[in-house]
Write a structure and sequence with these properties.
This protein has helices at 5-10, 12-19, 39-51, 57-70, and strands at 2-4, 24-28, 31-36. By secondary structure, it is α+β, with helices and mostly antiparallel strands. Strand 2 (24-28) and strand 3 (31-36) form a beta hairpin.
Length: 92
């Protein structure tokens, strides 16, 4: 069921009672702004979200940096060489 914000405020007990049976949509000017759900549904969703969370590229690189630092690994960078700049025709 969909409730306006004003209705939901006035009839909060009813919204909460109904949420135990099915999610209750709250709308502001006909646009959904919130959903009230039962605690067990929320906990089930949170468990699913944690299980399916993927890490970002930044998090993966942070893990690699910490692993490398812990083992004393140091990345050796090759010495830079001058190379031809194909746009200017001049070697740098």
């Amino acid at each position: 069921m969909a409730w306006s914000v004003a209705e939901a405020k006035q009839r909060l007990s009813e919204v909460l009672r109904n949420a135990a049976k099915e999610p209750q949509m709250i709308e502001n000017r006909s646009r959904p702004v919130a959903v009230v759900v039962a605690v067990d549904a929320f906990e089930e969703f949170e468990a699913w979200r944690v299980q399916h969370k993927t890490r970002s590229v930044g998090e993966a690189f942070a893990e690699l940096r910490s692993l490398a630092a812990g083992s004393g690994y140091r990345l050796e960078l090759p010495r830079r060489r001058n190379r031809r700049n194909q746009f200017s025709g001049v070697s740098r």
